[in-house]
Amino acid sequence: MAIAPARQTLAGQPPTGLPVREAEAASRRSRLIPFSAADRAVLWLYLFTRTGIWVTAYCTGWLFTGDGTSKQAPPLMSRWEQWDWAYFVRIAQYGYFDGPLGPGSAHPDNREAFFPGFPLLLRAVHAVVRDWTLAGLLISFVAGGVAVLALGRIARLELRDRVPGRVRDGLRDSVREGAGDIEIGPRAVLFLLLSPCAVFLAVGYSEALFLAFALPAWLAARKGNWPQAALLAFFATSVRISGLFLVAALAVQFATAGDLRRRLRSLPWLAVPVLPALGYAWYLQTRTGDWMAWKHAQERGWYRQFHAPWDAWSNTWDAAFSATYTTGYALLFRAELVAMVVGVLLLGVLLIRRRWPEAAYIGLTLWALGTSYWYMSIPRASLLWWPLWIGLARWSLRRPWVRTAYICVAAPLMTVLAVAFTSGRWAG
Questions:
Q1: In the chain, fewer beta carbons within 10 Å around the N or the C end?
Q2: 10 Å Cβ neighbour count for 342?
Q3: Is residue 281 included in any domain, yes or no?
Q4: What is the pTM of this model?
């Protein structure tokens, strides 16, 4: 009878034999495959939903062709050339003060309202990809992939922090730490990618690019890597004013993460993400004499003058239900109201759970969007509320019906709004 080789069991020494070889093989595989199983699930989910949105855009082009008498659908790329895309491509082509509809024209387009990060990258990519629309779509596609990977990893990190080694908060017995760790990332990404306004992550807009910087910045901050977090937030701020809200969240995270003295040498890094906003304001001031030219452009073009929150709610309610506006506008004003309610509920949950950094981010976002003449673009802004998607994912681990109910309600809404956008009927 063959005798099995002895295994070393002394402290600090791994056993020899097959387990070691298997561990070494697993280690080599992990080095060759840079993504975990949860990461790969997220990427497959992303690819499948991108395919679905393109199929929706293709069918929309054939179903909605002007007066309905056309025998030929418009080019597929034209489905994506809607609304804000015109601003981004004009800035990329001509800058902020030249070309058609610039500030010196009879009817300026107020393009100063858009931060320069996305147009600058669009111009750079266009040097290689000569079609402007394709270049914008490519940016959003790559950026969206980065964003969903980061979202999944943030969700897993938060689950590990909140469930260290055992099941808490009423998680089902069948959901152990390992299973939840694999599942929560794809769930959070699913909730994001099936959200009603998810089409804006696919088009040549700035949401996907912002998330591609903001979410890795938040992930780096949660891991205590403040230089990396600051540099990523720098690029996020160059893309959208929401980057300043992210900076506020990073500052609160910095102050509340514990053992502040050890991190004080990293404190100057928190000034770095503010620089793009200051630089853009300075650039506009040199051209217009107005440090707040971007804000005044928003006021002229999108009624973003300051109003009390209750006045903004009242004005939006009237626009939604007074039969003053056409049905398309009225429906989207109703969506604005619903999104504001969801945002306020989310803020309340974060405050109750003492999630101060995320509460700062959501609270500033709601204040900025909820103090205009009326609500505008709040459903789109909800794409940037990563605590919402992670919170829904955690909730669905405890209550499996949440995911089913969300898919059944959100997926049809996402399809309707994708059709509205790609057919040129979007109005919000």
A1: N
A2: 15
A3: yes
A4: 0.88
